[in-house]
Automatic annotation (TrEMBL):
Upper taxonomic lineage: Bacteria, Pseudomonadati, Pseudomonadota, Betaproteobacteria, Burkholderiales
Protein name: ABC transporter ATP-binding protein
Species: Roseateles subflavus
Entry-linked PROSITE patterns: ABC_TRANSPORTER_1 (PS00211), ABC_TRANSPORTER_2 (PS50893)
CDD domains linked: ABC_MJ0796_LolCDE_FtsE (cd03255)
Residue ranges constituting the ABC transporter domain according to the UniProt record: 12-251
Record's keyword annotation contains Transcription regulation: no
SMART domains, alphabetized: AAA (SM00382)
Length: 263
């Protein structure tokens, strides 16, 4: 029998995924039977009202938290079958995070913050790690602040350092949770350019945002409500090029990264 050519496994596959939080007197279903496939190289934005489960979804996608029910595969591997150490290794190697509140370690210098994801990378020599950190800081135009502490930087600068930290390990998946939520419009634009550039260079980008213009930068927008996905497809906005049907491969409609947020 001749082998049938197989479709490559999606980067992420969630099937009937649920996450319940148990507190003293109540159970909250933050994710409620959610299905989602993310192909390698996609850029998708996640929108929805406050409390609908967006950050919970990103925590689960980022292996920071575990689902209470359902299947979660990453590159064809069932995440639930991994032990804590294997999950940490997968997270460390394949996933980069950018948070609204930057989440830099206050006691560490800029360059030490950026080096954090490389700490457990035994495949890289010290010299290679140093080179990677320097390159990542140069990429976000923060090389001149390498020895500073986070508190000595502006918010926009801190977020650029956080992006360098997310990119330094060359992860396949970048998860950004309202990455411009604490920034003015000029810094927000800069951050979006850097994230779009990382996507253009091949990373898969999954971004939670409340900003419709930012959401429209992604050719695929997933809209959540009450722990579920209620809409999944291209946003029919004026700024988007010809809209693609739901689930269409993404690169065709993504506008160029440069200056994308200027009206
Ligand atoms: N650690 C927790 N313990 C208990 N409940 C939680 C916890 N984290 C989140 N929740 C609840 O889960 C639901 C989803 O929260 P989540 O933070 O994912 O929402 P969100 O869509 O990111 O909202 P926002 O837009 O305000 O950031 C909310 O009802 C929230 O109160
Ligand atoms: Mg949130």
């Amino acid at each position: 029998m001749s082998p049938t050519p197989e479709r490559p496994a999606p980067l992420v596959h969630l099937h009937q995924l649920s996450k319940a939080y148990l507190t003293d007197d109540m159970e909250t279903h933050a994710l409620d039977g959610l299905d989602l496939e993310i192909q390698s190289g996609e850029f998708l934005s996640i929108t929805g009202p406050s409390g609908c489960g967006k950050s919970t979804l990103l925590s689960v996608l980022g292996l920071l938290d575990t689902a209470t029910q359902g299947r979660h595969e990453m590159s064809g591997v069932e995440v639930g079958s991994l032990n804590a150490r294997q999950r940490a290794a997968l997270r460390n190697r394949e996933i980069g995070f950018v948070f609204q509140a930057f989440n830099l370690v206050g006691e560490l210098s800029v360059e030490d913050n950026v080096a954090l994801p490389l700490l457990y990378r035994s495949d890289l020599s010290r010299a290679e790690r140093r080179e990677r950190v320097a390159a990542a800081l140069a990429q976000v135009d923060m090389a001149h602040r390498a020895r500073h502490l986070p508190a000595q930087l502006s918010g926009g600068q801190q977020q650029r350092v956080a992006i360098a930290r997310a990119l330094v390990g060359q992860p396949r998946l970048i998860l950004a949770d309202e990455p411009t939520g604490n920034l003015d419009s000029r810094n927000a634009e800069r951050v979006m350019e850097l994230l779009c550039a990382a996507h253009a260079a091949g990373a898969t980008l999954c971004m939670v945002t409340h900003d419709a213009r930012q959401a429209a930068l992604a050719a695929r927008t997933v809209h959540m409500f009450d722990g579920r996905i209620v809409r999944d497809g291209a946003l029919p906005t004026a700024s988007a090029a010809p809209t693609a049907p739901a689930g269409t491969a993404l690169s065709a409609t993504r506008p160029a990264a440069q200056g994308v947020l200027h009206a």
